[in-house]
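Why run this: before we spend reagent on co-expression, it is cheaper to look at a predicted model of the complex and decide which construct boundaries make sense. The entries below are exactly what would go into the expression plan.
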Amino acid sequence: MTGKQLLDDCFLHDKDRLRHHEALTILKDRLTAVATVETVRLEAALERVLADDLSAPRNIPLADNSAVDGYAFRHGDFDEAGGFFRLEQRIAAGQSGGAGLAPWGAARIFTGAVMPPGADTVAMQEDCEQHQQDGQDFVIVPQGLRKGANCRLAGEDVAEGTTILSAGQRLRAQDLAAIASAGRAEVPVFRKLKVALVSTGDELRRPGDLITVGDVYDSNHFLLRALCATLPVEIEDLGIVRDDGALVTATLKEAADRFDVILTTGGASRGEEDHVLRALDGLGTRHMWQLAIKPGRPMMFGSIGNCVFLGLPGNPVAAMVCFLLYARPVMSVLGGGPFLAPQSFQVPAAFEIPRKKPDRREFYRAFLKPGPDGKPEAHKFMRDGSGLITGLREADGLVEIPEEATSVTQGGLVTFLPFSSFGMR
Ligand code: AMP
Ligand code: MG
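The model came back. Tokens follow.
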């Protein structure tokens, strides 16, 4: 991500603006991890990004063992009628394993206990009959068990040397279980990205402060703070910066030295009071600005020294959409993870859009509800304004309408991106 490799396409029509998939391709191609590596204990590794491949140093499980409470025996000792075995030994979980079985010998065995040498099959205790004769215990095992039944083989979960997890994977609960099963107490992970959050605008006040006509509460700060919590990043609040060119420049300059990423909202257009764009141009390199999407056309992406700059639009809806589509995957990659792409699926639209502008991709706040046939349909939030937080709140995802579409018909299939696939609800 260097120099002027990325497009700078201000003052263009939608058809000439950078398209969504082009923007994603550029970002994917140009970005690499900037985070360095640290070692953390497994207890602290949830949701962190693994920095190295991790393989099994030994078989998991280590030895063949029983999957049930029952009797272990050699399947070859079965005859037509079943098995009549002399009970020779008792092996409980945690013991290192029994002696070799003599012909027609069996071992009383419990779940997780190591199979005695020679045994290959376990009968469940419920299916067997144990009795004594001349002071010797015997067990009768009915026919019908296949060889290997109820026996867990060494390495059947993971064979020695197999890669369990690869660098770049974000660790989930089940991944931690797998690492623990391999005996690792610590793992190398990428350090959390340091992210500065900056709100810009003379009109902004923080909740708790008094407002008068003309003022607006800084909801974006809380939106972005929460959205960032879906990523392995550490945020610092740099507060609200007034619409003053010198002040914006000074703030960004100072932040660029201390942070991996600066995330701003507001001031992203070319208006007289939009200072972020000019400050970025003065301090570093702007790579991408106007996108052929709605909402959120002005989205800045650039760098100041080694710091990546992401300038989101001020309108909350646009800020959230741009964060999810671009800032989130960008920050994931910088932090050593994958370029996060949301899962999407096709659902019938329960709304219509008679006329849509071609050449731009549109994202609508939407929610799923069962239709008359019980199958989910996408409902669109009725009002369009990109300042309406209510629509974000009522939505549980976005509907994505591609550039070439000029309308959406009721019942026609649309692409739905659930918020859950962006790590949120
Ligand atoms: P701007 O991008 O600065 O032109 O802002 C566009 C719109 O978003 C204006 O109506 C702003 O008041 C609003 N806005 C900007 N920043 C925020 C914020 N942090 N929280 C809520 N609304 C904002
Ligand atoms: Mg502003």
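The radius of gyration is 31 Å. The mean pLDDT is 94. Bring this page to Monday's planning discussion.
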